[in-house]
Structure formats: structure tokens, C-alpha cells
Amino acid sequence: MNKIELLSPAGNLEKLKIAFAYGADAVYGGVSHFSLRIRSGKEFTFESFKEGIDYAHSLGKKVYATINGFPFNSQIDLLKKHIVQMAELKPDALIVAAPGVVKLCRELAPDIPIHLSTQANVMNYLDAQVYYDMGVRRIIAAREISLKDIKEIKKQLPDMEIEIFVHGSMCFAYSGRCLVSAVQMGRVPNRGSCANDCRFQYTLYAANEDHGTLFRLEEEPGVGTYIFNAKDMNLASHVDEILASDAVDSIKIEGRTKSPYYAAVTAYTYRQAIDDYYNNAFDASKYQQELATTKNRGFTDAYLIHRPFDKMDSQNHDYALSKGSFEVSGLVTEDEMHFMCKYKTYPNEAIEIFAPLNSEIETCDNEIGSIFQGEDGKYYVKFKKILTETNKELESVHSGNTNKIQLPGKLPYLTMLRVENDEEEACCN
């Protein structure tokens, strides 16, 4: 049995490094409007994306470049130039959605493997075979597919790699084939500029065309306000079933526009789930507890295990996004002796240390503060004083402060300091 790949989102260079530090084997990202995440694509330049690829390769890990938009005729020449530019960066694969773009990539970048985007909606081995014959060597299956159908595709095409989404935002439309944003905002989802209109609150009306009256429909409290709003996918509790199928080569986390904390927690948690499975120590409750600390719209296990018509809990009619149970207080800098404040930090408060995978934490106690292990087995830092890099003492430090803040002792680069929200802050917004 081959060990499955964990694939994380990389919206920018910092999140790319965080994903690897917390357990990802590979990441995916892009640099232009030919990627379906235009907002995150703008955070990468060709130079920084190349830096990310070189960084990944130095770790023995991989980067997949997204070219999964659907181009207009007027964009074809620009697309050809873009494919050549991306190929020069030496990514480990190109993620492509349109058959014509697959053909172009084969012609212009013949040495780079092609992965077929979930936007291509592959649900069966007949479609998979067509793309295999075109040169595709991995399909990212439609999010509506079942594990049973994935196993059948693998049976029919054993040399085709199969990648599936296991976590992140869900679209209420079929594999993201939505035009609501295009109609309402003029932003075309399948060109990389979705406005997320499905997350808005809607008020429903009924019209009588005979005499032109319009009635506002009064809704039962908590039902129907967010009528298009899908919960977030969370298949952590089913990682054991996925791996046991021996049909999936890569599990993928959605979220190039999500926070660095989301990138860290999801990579860390799914890495744990994978490793625990291979070590016969799988514990679904542990993973769910950790994932609940991230901002989410409520969780659903979506359709991989259950058919869509069996699912009655995939929509969230109450709110668009919750805060999550934790806030990131700080991010440790590369020198490992300072952190940058991301929330708020006060003296004499115990702050949990959330460190990259397999980190060793050294305890200490000095005039700046202490690093210690709590009774719960977790590590914490407590500051006796808040000192900047230049030894200026502050009463507290808040997000927006660009000064490095001294740590009592060394902590691994990209370690996150996190504090639990109080109940009022943690409620849905």
C-alpha cells in the first residue's frame, strides 16, 4: 500500500511554508487569472511562486500550479504565454480543467504532469479514460462523487491517480458550476472571480403578476435566511475509510484564501489522521476537536460516504461564518526568538503554543516570561513583560503593531501562539 499524499492550499509564500511546516506533502497555488482563485493568485508573483517551488523541492516536497480557469477566445494567446512561463518555474504538475487547455499544456509543457481539476466533473471511469488518453495522469474527482465510484474508477484505470477533497468550503452548485455571482455582481465564478453570493442573507418575496402586488415572506426563525449557504466539508472522521479503500492517491484541503492559522491546523490535523491510521491509532474525536478551532460555517461530511439525497445537514441556514474557538495571538519569526502580534497579547496570561509538526519545545523561566507544559500536556507561554526587539516595554501588544516582540525562549519558526475565544466572541457573526 502506497502512503497517501496530503495536499494543502498555498495562497501565498507564507502559507506555503506553513502548510509544509505543519505536515503537508504538497501544496497547490497559482499566480494569475487563469487560476480559479484570482484573489489568492494575486498574492503570488512569478518570482515568489518560483521561490515557493524551490523551497518545496529543498524539502523533498511538491508544488502543483493551477491553470484551471476556462478561457475566452480573446485570452488564448495570453494563456499560451502563461503556460510557458509557468513551465519554466518547474512545478510538479499543472492543474487544468478545460480539455483544450489540457491539449495546450501537452504541446507547450510536455514534461510536466497534468492533473485534471475538479471543475471537469469526473464522476465515472468513462470520462476518466478520455482524459487519460489525452495525457492526464491524475484526476481531482468531482466533490459529489462517492467512495464506491472512486474505487470503480481505480479498478478500471489502476494507473490513473485519484485526488479527492476532504476539507473546506462547499459550493451549493454542482462542483462549483454556479452563475449566481455572474448574474448579480458581474463576476464569473468559472473565470476565477466568484463573489460568494451564496453566503449572503436573502429575503424572500412572492409576487402576484395579475395586480402587481408584492408580499414579503415571513420566515420561521432560523430557517431559510441563508438559503444557498453550504456548510464546510469535513471528512477527518472518514480518513480511515478513505485510506482503507486503497483507491485514493491524494487527499486535498480547500482554502487558498483562508488564514495562515487554517492552513496550519488543517495540515496538522489531517497529517495526524493519516499517520494515526498507518500506526493503528486512528481517533476521529481528536481531529474534530482541533478542526473546530478554525473559522467555519458548521461541518458536514458531504457526499463521499453518503449520497446527496441521503444528506439533510449540508446547508447552514443560520449564519455565514463562525469565528472558530481560537484566535491566533502571534506568529514566531524566522529567528525563533520573537513573534509578530496577530491579535492581542497581555502580560500574565497563559497562551497556548501550537507548533509545527514534530517540534521539540524547551521550557524556561526568566525575566521576560516562561515557557511551560500544562497539566493537559500542552505547552504554554506566559509573559512577565512585553518587550520589543529594541527592549521597549509595552503594557500590551495588539494586531497592527509591526514590532517584533521578544519571547522568553526559542520556539520553532512559524509556531503560532493561540488563545481561546470567550463564549461571546466565539459565537456566529
UniProtKB/TrEMBL annotation:
Q: Which family does it belong to?
A: Belongs to the peptidase U32 family.
Molecular functions per Gene Ontology = peptidase activity
Keyword annotations for this protein?
A: Hydrolase, Protease
Q: Which organism is it from?
A: Candidatus Marinarcus aquaticus
Supply the PROSITE patterns for this chain: PEPTIDASE_U32
Q: Which InterPro entries match?
A: Peptidase_U32, RNA/ubiquinone_mod_enzymes
Identification of the protein by name: Collagenase-like protease
Q: Name the domain of life.
A: Bacteria
One GO biological process term:
proteolysis
The keyword Aminoacyl-tRNA synthetase belongs to this UniProt entry's keyword annotation? no
